[in-house]
């Protein structure tokens, strides 16, 4: 099995990257940008400088914006080209615990709620906390969940949690700001029509779900992986795949952020999540994975949830995936 870790950075090699580089059976694809200092490649790490990216011949290289988190799309494609069976998605400020590991893409324990939106953090802690991308008007709603045994289902993506400074929105950090250690509780999956935001910080992707790795470029930095996650959940269901969650397997030593700028960047998340999910709920079978992804973005452009330029970038991604997968 070929396993790749994809990270993008504008910093020098972090402690998190160094820790992942010590893993014998994983290879890091480190995507640089115009601001990135050069980082030396090794047997377990490939640094893709801007020049190296331009030499790859991918359609997306020329249309994906520079100085942007979504240059990470190029790293996903590179891992596919190298024959990846699994892609692990993370950031340079996450550090793995000793128990960090790939779980089989299968689960028979379902978290069942009474509402469309699930706050997965409530399964792993009794603290009042919610993940970035969770609708604000759902936070105070009663959260009644149960975990039930089911037939085994296939997992399209495993989202692992992060301790210390987990993935929360700017409102939580500005108003509560409490560090969290999640409980060691069982892994679970969500059923169809149950949505929970998931991110690009500690996520294992099944090869069958690789088309949905696409990060949209015309939304804000704090929204791109959240929008991707909501779309991926819906599109994975079309393939019989599910989203699963595991206990914290990393801890975050968060890079410096301006929380007010984070809040400004998250306004799209607060305003658009529920209308987009409602739009998905009205969609019909969209066909094969890549065609479905393109159709969804055509719809989002038509409804002005993303900019018209998104279509050219998404189509480039689709073309590259068709060549590499």
Describe the protein.
With 325 residues, the chain is of the alpha/beta class. The protein has one domain: Spore Coat Polysaccharide Biosynthesis Protein SpsA, Chain A (Alpha-Beta Complex), CATH 3.90.550. The chain contains 10 helices and 10 strands. The chain has helices spanning 15-21, 50-54, 60-63, 72-81, 121-124, 170-175, 224-237, 259-281, 289-302, 310-324, and strands at 3-8, 27-31, 45-48, 86-90, 94-96, 106-112, 146-163, 188-190, 202-206, 241-252. Strands 1, 2, 3, 4, 5, 6, 7, 8, 9 and 10 form a 10-stranded mixed sheet that branches. β1 (3-8), α1 (15-21) and β2 (27-31) form a beta-alpha-beta unit. The longest helix is centred in the last third of the chain and has 23 residues, at 259-281. The model has no long low-confidence stretch (mean pLDDT 96).
């Amino acid at each position: 099995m070929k396993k790749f870790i994809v990270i993008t950075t504008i910093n020098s090699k972090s402690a998190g990257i160094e820790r992942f580089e010590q893993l014998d059976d994983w290879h890091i694809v480190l995507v640089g940008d115009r601001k990135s200092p050069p980082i030396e490649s090794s047997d377990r790490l490939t640094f893709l400088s801007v020049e190296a990216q331009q030499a790859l011949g991918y359609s997306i290289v020329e249309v994906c914006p520079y100085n942007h988190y979504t240059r990470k799309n190029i790293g996903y494609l590179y891992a596919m080209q190298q024959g990846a069976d699994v892609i692990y998605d993370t950031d340079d400020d996450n550090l793995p615990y000793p128990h960090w590991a790939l779980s089989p893409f299968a689960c028979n324990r379902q978290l069942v709620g009474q509402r469309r939106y699930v706050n997965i953090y409530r399964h792993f802690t009794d603290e009042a906390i919610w993940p970035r991308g969770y609708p604000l008007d759902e936070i105070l709603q009663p959260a009644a969940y149960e975990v039930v045994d089911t037939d085994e289902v296939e997992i399209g993506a495993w989202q692992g949690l992060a301790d210390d400074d987990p993935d929360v929105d700017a409102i939580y950090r500005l108003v509560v700001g409490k560090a969290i250690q999640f409980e060691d509780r069982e892994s679970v999956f969500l059923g169809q029509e149950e949505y929970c935001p998931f991110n690009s910080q500690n996520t294992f992707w099944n090869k069958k779900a690789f088309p949905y790795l696409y990060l949209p470029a015309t939304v804000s930095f704090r929204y791109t992986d959240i929008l991707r996650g909501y779309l991926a959940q819906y599109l994975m269901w079309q393939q019989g795949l599910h989203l699963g969650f595991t206990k914290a397997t990393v801890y975050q030593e968060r890079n410096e952020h301006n929380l007010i700028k984070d809040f400004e960047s998250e306004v799209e998340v607060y305003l658009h999540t529920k209308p987009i999910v409602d739009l998905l709920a009205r969609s019909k079978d969209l066909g094969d994975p890549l065609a479905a992804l393109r159709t969804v973005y055509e719809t989002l452009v038509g409804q002005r949830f993303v900019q018209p330029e998104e279509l050219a970038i998404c189509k480039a991604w689709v073309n590259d995936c068709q060549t590499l997968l």
